[in-house]
Design goal:
The protein is built from no helices and nine strands. It is 0% helix and 52% strand.
Length: 90
Amino acid sequence: MEKSDLHGIFYNEEYLLTVTKGYVQLNTNIETDHKPFFPKILWREKYEYEEKDHLIQISENLAVLPTSDFNFEVILILDLDQHLPMRRFK
């Protein structure tokens, strides 16, 4: 996998992850009345790419676990106990 392979938009029912050449942004709709949208920004950080064992650190606070087909889905790791499957939106 290369650094540019993760550029895109990934989502599930509660989170929207945007990965660009320059930044990573994680939005949520938790505790909002706008469920089809993701108005609350949790993190906006510089995009980094560092492979660590089976994880890829994409910013200071966010890491992903690639699935067998990372073109369609990754697992976002917010902390050690919370793994969130997210599908790619194209």
